[in-house]
Amino acid sequence: MLRRTLVCAVAVTAGSAMAGAAGNPMASANTTTNVLPDTASMRTRAEQGDADAQCRLGFFYEQGHGVDKNATEAARWYRKAAEQGHVGAQNNLGRCYWLGAGVDKSATEAAMWWRKAAEQGQAGAQFNLGLCYEFGRGLVPDPTEAAKWYRKAAEQGHAGAQYNLGNCYVTGAGVGQNATEAAHWFRRAAEQGRAEAQYNLGFCYAFGKGLVKNPTEAVQWYRRAAEQGHADAQYNLGSSYLMGAGVIADKVEACKWFLLAEASGQPQAGELRSKLAREMSAAQLAQATALAQAWQKKREQSQPAP
Fold first, then answer.
1. DSSP state string for 122-139
2. Is 61 part of any domain?
3. Of 193, 169, 189, which is closest to residue 181 (Cα–Cα)?
4. Is there a domain that residue 251 lies in?
């Protein structure tokens, strides 16, 4: 009843197909501030050729900090800094080209600027360059190059790159297949809170893929991902409660997690929930439904306001 496949979708960030996960690699380096920006002073420094000020001014235009939002001005100032070798500006100019924000959309230009930043060691740019190589966006597809750049970012602690490198080891894309290495990199990303990695690490423990089989550890990692709303983790956690694998068997908890997985779009959860419901009393079903509703309400309340 457990979902017996790893999730091998690449790590991306909601809202942008090329954005990084942890650390938001698409944002400028050292551009945020807790006080209102002194745009006049920043502009003076930028016009005098200060690359950091140029990058910050670009960020202000992009975000509307102290000035009206203006994507064209943001890209113009990012370019001035990028051409001086400013790594944050290079990364952000790459994003501008990827999104077509203030410039004509161009995956080739995006990859070029990300490469410049990546070669200076910027982890977010290394991750994005890996994505370009993996999917042939602006570059000829090359799984070996993709894995190389993922590794560079992963070794700097980039959670998205760690997750994607783990997937490379699962599929053998650009590296030799190695379940132990896959589990290692999934763990690195999972410990940073990456839900997909937490699910995959749970899977590794559940089925002994690269790790000694341990149902209790599997449940712990499934739970971490499930609490973040990961549908397959919710399904597998429900299955664990149904079978008593790594936890004491509990039909109410199983039904609760199947309900949540079904609501999250997990395709098998509804059928299994229906079968389980036929074995439960009305009181048990009501309890499971109430627990699922309470979980959903708590999660909604914990989400940041739009």
1. -HHHHHHHHHHHHHTSSS
2. no
3. 169
4. yes
Coil vs helix vs strand at 13: strand
Residue listed under structure tokens 């309470």 = 294
> For 251-265, how does the pLDDT look when each residue is reduced to its tens digit (9 = 90+)?
999 999 999 999 999
120-137 pLDDT per residue, tens: 999 999 999 999 999 999
Q: Which domain holds residue 219?
A: 214-306
Total number of domains in the chain:
1
Long-range contact set of residues 287-296: C-beta below 8 Å, sequence gap at least 24: 287/252, 288/251, 288/252, 288/253, 288/255, 288/256, 288/259, 289/259, 291/252, 291/253, 291/256, 292/255, 292/256, 292/257, 292/259, 292/260, 292/263, 295/256, 295/260, 296/260, 296/263
Domain for residue 35, yes or no? no
Sole residue written with tokens 């983790």:
233
Q: Is residue 280 part of a domain?
A: yes
